[in-house]
Every structure is written in C-alpha cells, then in structure tokens.
Amino acid sequence: MDNIVSANKLRNQNAILNPKENDDQKALFLKEKQEFEKEKALFLKEKQEFEKEKALFLKEKQKTLEENEETTINESLKNKETKKGKQDK
C-alpha cells in the first residue's frame, strides 16, 4: 500500500513539475490530428467519388465495345450479302 501512495505522490509531483509546454504540445498534436482526420475523410470521400466515376466509365466503355462489335458484325454481314449479290449477277 505504501508503494501505491508513494507512486501517486511521485505522479503528482511530476505533474506539477512538467512544464506547460507539454500541454501546449498536446493541444497542438490534437489539433493536427483533427486536421489529419478531416483530410483523411475528405480523401476517402473523393476516392469513393472517383471509384463511382471509374465504374461508370468502365460500364460506358463496355457498352461502346459491345456496340462496336455489333456494328462490325452487321457491316460484315452486309458486305457478304453485297459480294454474294454481285456474284449472282
């Protein structure tokens, strides 16, 4: 029990002896931490928006590729029909 009392006394003495700078440094650290957390949240929001835009872009790209493929197939069929029509004449 005496050890606990002695430890508490030492803690209290250290708290008194610690300069105010520690409190200022702690406050500055907490402020910087808050700013960092805000920037992190903003970054994550921007990342999420980017991912949505990326997904939309990829969807549009896939749609365009499918349309191009369909157009190519249709043109190929038309060309074959045209060649066949010329050969029949």
Q: Count the domains.
A: 1
Largest sheet: none
| Structural class determined from secondary elements | mainly alpha
Proportion of residues in β-strands: under 5%
Number of helices: 2
**Overall mean pLDDT:** 87
Oligomer: single chain
| Shape type | rod-shaped
**How far is it from the N-terminal to the C-terminal residue, by CA?**
115 Å
Helical residues, percent: over 70%
Low-pLDDT regions = none
Order of helices and strands: HH
Count of individual beta strands: 0
Biased composition (Basic and acidic residues): 77-89
Region (Disordered): 65-89
Describe this structure in words.
This protein is mostly helical and 89 residues long. It has one domain. It contains two helices and no strands. The protein has helices spanning 2-17, 20-88. 0% of the residues are buried. The model has no long low-confidence stretch (mean pLDDT 87). Residues 77-89 have a biased composition (Basic and acidic residues). Residues 65-89 are annotated as: Disordered.
